[in-house]
């Protein structure tokens, strides 16, 4: 590949669509996260379920699936694995016998601090080279993008 071809390719990469850039960043974060939580015996999807329950408390599997934009069958397998590990527990919803409620167990407590630290480390890696003000503005803009796209779904 010639120097001119490489320069042209780099120029095209700088002008890539926002959706492509967001997708690539998401994949990089997932890869980094999965590599770092592997020793804990977790995947990123399992962490997302645990974090959702940590932040929002007990909820139905359907609510978790909706929040994570996952189909119910694959989420059910994730929940099965988390329950087998003893990190979550399920029980019938008293107001709807068809629904299963999911909650964290005390067994997850020691791991939560490590996971929070890991999420913070990834965030710091992503914003390395930004001033505190730039990082705050970046986060504000990401939340705006999130809200914009959420309203489209």
TrEMBL record:
Pfam families: MarR (PF01047). InterPro entries: HTH_MarR-typ (IPR000835), WH-like_DNA-bd_sf (IPR036388), WH_DNA-bd_sf (IPR036390). Keywords: DNA-binding, Transcription, Transcription regulation. One of its GO terms (molecular function) is DNA-binding transcription factor activity. Residues 15-147 form the HTH marR-type domain. The keyword DNA-binding applies. The keyword Transcription applies. This is MarR family transcriptional regulator. It comes from Pseudohalioglobus sediminis.
